[in-house]
Write a structure and sequence with these properties.
alpha/beta; Rossmann fold; seven-stranded parallel sheet
Length: 251
């Protein structure tokens, strides 16, 4: 069990082998107890917990659908009961579904907003208010997307939902600092750090060619940025691209 002094991080979307999973590993390596969140990937989440436990970290898995407010509330209630406090929240859970504009329905847009936008807002609000009650405060790191500034085709509903994340970040930074100036909120805007396996060779080459560094990144690059934002106590309300220069590249 977590001691009174040990810090606790909750990372949404950290059960699967994706960006959130790497963030969980990085924070566990720095002594954090880890609340692993999953929606449907129960077996993967339990494997993640087992691996973190083997490395000496105190970890436990919790299920919640980010689109359901009652689930989000239960997630934080269960994590608080298990660990007793919350020092870091990272909102890595997201839907990323391609669909041509002609085929996008209102239901598609609502689903993306429910998970990517509303889910992020609800998690930030609940975590932030919990942190505001702690003298030490806490840190929230949201996860947006570099391409909301330069959208590409076939992800219109996704980009609409992710475009709200920087605004949520700045709003929460202002709101929570008024309640406790030791609560900070920042955002990471990842680029091609974990390209989907079903991308065509041409799409993969295009994503890499569009970076200034001419190479794909890794989930660990996002984890390193999270650690920076957690540990640097004079940064709040910032959106940090981790994209190899993709947001300003010419490709």
């Amino acid at each position: 069990m977590t001691t009174a002094q040990q810090k606790v991080a909750l990372i949404t979307g950290s059960g699967k082998r994706r960006v959130g999973n790497s963030v969980a590993a990085a924070l566990a390596a720095r002594g954090y107890s880890i609340a692993v969140h999953f929606n449907r990937s129960a077996e993967e989440a339990e494997r993640t917990v087992a691996e973190l436990n083997e490395r000496g970290a105190d970890a436990a898995a919790f299920q919640a659908d980010m689109a359901v407010e009652a689930d989000v509330e239960r997630l934080f209630d269960q994590a608080a009961e298990r660990f007793g406090r919350l020092d870091v929240l990272v909102t890595a859970a997201a839907l990323w579904e391609p669909r041509p504009l002609e085929e996008v329905t209102a239901a598609d847009v609502r689903r993306q907003f429910d998970v990517n936008t509303l889910g992020t807002f609800l998690c930030c609000r609940r975590a932030g208010l919990l942190m505001a009650e702690q003298a030490e405060g806490g840190v929230i790191v949201t996860v947006g997307d570099w391409a909301t500034q330069r959208p590409y085709a076939d992800y219109s509903a996704y980009f609409a939902s992710k475009g709200a994340i920087p605004t949520i970040t700045r709003t929460m930074a202002v709101e929570l600092a008024r309640r406790n100036p030791n609560v900070r909120v920042n955002c990471i805007l990842p680029g091609p750090v974990m390209l989907p396996s079903d991308l065509s060779e041409m799409e993969t080459k295009g994503a890499i060619a569009g970076t200034l560094l001419k190479r794909a990144g890794r989930p660990e690059n996002v984890a390193q940025a999270v650690v920076f934002l957690v540990e640097n106590d004079f940064v709040t309300g910032v959106c940090l691209p981790v994209d190899g220069g993709r947001s300003i590249g010419g490709g």
